Structures are given as C-alpha cells and as structure tokens.
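Quarterly update from the structural biology core.
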Amino acid sequence: MTRIMSIAFSLVAACMLPACGGGSDATGGTSDTGGTGAPAAPAPAASGGTAAPAGASVTSAVQVPDALAAPPFDTARELRVPPGFGIRVWARVPGARFMALAPNGDVLVSVPSEGRIVLLRGGANDVPQRFDFAAGMHNPHDMVFHAIGDQTYLYVAESNRVTRSVYHAGDTQRAGSEVVVDGLPDNSTPELRGAYGHELKNIALGPDHKLYVSIASACNACVEDTASDPVRGAIYQYSADGKDRRLFARGIRNAEGLDFIPGTNTLWIAVNERDEIRFPFDADFDGDGKSDLGALLARYVDEHPPESFTVVRDGANFGWPFCNQAPNGAMSGLEAIPDVEFNRNGASFDCAGVARASKGMRAHSAPLGFSFLHASKVPVAYRKGAAVALHGCWNCTSLNAGYKVVYFPFDDAGNAGDEMDLVSGFVTDPDGRAFWGRPVDVIADAAGNLLISDDYAGAIYQLHPAQ
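Predicted structure, tokenized:
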C-alpha cells in the first residue's frame, strides 16, 4: 500500500469501534444502542452563559391518548429523552414522511405512498384536527413555505416535478398550483425502466430566493447516473419560478434533508451513502492471512462508509460513486478514498480533490429530515444546533445504526460540534432486529416542541419540555 492508503487503512481499522459515529448520552458515554467506546467530547456551552444542551439519558413512557392507541401503541412504549422532557404521540398519520410548519402554526405532513398531504391543526384534548390538504399528487415528499415580498408560497416536491401554490393563513386545502420544475427523473422515466431506488425529491429555498432540488441516485452505486441529464446524485439550483437551472453540486448519492442555517446563505445536507461497499485496501481484514481487496465483508460493510452531514458549497463534488468518505476518530472533515469497484487505485477519479464531509455519522444510520433550530422557540439550550432524524439501517447484521433522533450543536461560525442522541429507544433488540418505530423528519412547532414523524408506526411524536 502507499503511505496515504496505509494511513487511511489505520484510521478505518480504528473506527471499526462503535465510538466512531455513535451518539452520546448526557454522561458522555455511548447510547444504549451504540455499543461501548471512548467518551464523546462535551458539547460546547451555549452563548450567553446558558446551559449546554443535554442528550438523551432519561427513560420516559410514551404518552398516548386513548384515541391514538392503535398498534404499536396498544402496548406500553418507552423512549430515552433529555432530562426535563417528555414525549407523547401527538397524531397518527400512516406513512408519514416529511413535515412543514405553516406560518399560522398548522403542520403539513406528506404521505407519498397515498399521493396526499395531510394538515394537522392543534385541537382539544391534545389530538389535532386533521384535514386532507392535497390529494392526487405524484409521490409528494418535501414541502417548504417561502415568502417573496408580500406573497407566501408553498413549494411541494413530487417525484417528477416541483409545484408551488399561494398560501393564505388558515387554508385547509391547497390552492391551485403551478409547475415550476417539470420532468424530474423518477420511476416513470423511460431509461430507468421503473428502477429508481431514490425517486422521492427534497428541496430547499434560500434567503436569496433560489430553489435547490436534490436529485438522488437511481442506484446504490453506478456510473450511469453521473452522465445522465439531469445528473443524478446531485443538487440543482433554480430561480424561485423554476427558471435558470444549473448544476450546483454533485457526487452526492442521496441528499434527503436540505436546510439553510437561519440568517445565512449556508446550505447543509444530510446524505444517505452507499450500501454493500467492498473492502478497498490490499490488506488482510478478516484475519485469514490473505488480502481482502475487493471482498464483500459483512463486518466492514456494517461500519462503512459513514453517512454525511455537511455544508455544501457551489461547485462541490463529493465523489460518489468513485470515492467514499472514510471515518476518523472525530468524525469531522472526512477524507475520501477510492471506491474499489468504480475507481480502483484512483484510476478513474482523483479523490484527493473532492469536498470533505463536515461531519460523519455511523454508517447506514440513514439520515433523512433535519431542521436547524436557531429561529425556533425550543428551549434556549437547543436553539443553536440541528436535529436530525435517523431512519435506521434496513440490511445490517444488527440494528445498531440509526432508529433515533440526534442533535448537533453549532458554534457562532457555523461549525457543527459532536453528535448526541436526542430521542432513542425505537429498537428493542438490536441483534434480534426488533423495533417498533423509524424516525423520518423532525421540525420545531410554533410552541417550541419538536415534532418527529415516523412512517413505520404511522405517528407524529411531540418531544416537549416537561410540565
């Protein structure tokens, strides 16, 4: 091996320990589903002398109104939450995916499997009113409210297009919409022949009124997506009315969450990285005395590559499918190394020049939706950071990756600190692959609670300060 590859292999071997990418609890140890390892560095204290945010360390019974007690809540459930918080089932929405907070405090929930958007409005007895806000849509997923001048629009990402409609406070049905971006690739695209594993679309709008659309890869890893039009595994930028399309960043396998740090033009994304990665080093990994270069090894696959939570800048290339981020002890500033299937020895692409992921998370955690909490009413200790929903690994040998909500504190310069668990406990037996919930998205509501969607349990949870 070259010296650089030898150093990379040493780092990768060290990061086979669960300490790399595992969330920490309030005591600095690892989470209940993250194994054991070195304690994480404490989160920085919030500015102004306020207390630092605390991680999940208290087991709390999930409160369930009688009207919402259908399975899996026909039996008692518990979750780990930070001290001083409780958690309840706030609503039941089968297939719930992404959420958006309306200017008047209503909550929209997308249900792509049913082609609809549901509106939830706080009601009596803590069970919200439910309205069918929009129906007959083509896999609606992400939704963003955005004001331009005196007009507020609701943008909706369907799998094949992005539409927008005028929004008025109190609307319980979507007004007539216009298509601003059409012809996005999905399962109906002829060249893909119905095979598009990541067809759901995600969007963001910046303070400069630019629209950003994540077009995820159609595959786990393939070269074809890098030459398609539009490029798949990429983020495109448009004007707010859908004109002036241009490629903003690429080499991004599947950016599910997109959000701007409030008050800035700084875009962050949460990325699902590839599965079934082959061992990239000419070295013996499994201890049989032979080189494992190119081998598919379950223990290596389970821990590689780390998922990315990162700032993304204009013109960035993160290297997919030619390069994969490698874990390091700090899970920060991740170096990319050549993929042995598509870029053996770096022959097809120079990984040294790719953008480094700002933060890494445990491999196969499956980060989906996330929200910056800076402009919210959540408790002040959490108002300078991001909450990220981890959907969890579906094909790992055990369920130690994801299935929780985590939090990253941010400093004044916009740098992310160490990951900590915020809500965990959806997995009851990691080795037995037993679980009862899978978080999808997390947003702050108008009152300062956190809402968490779960497409497996068909629920919206409310993480709230204890009364």
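The longest strand covers residues 85-92.
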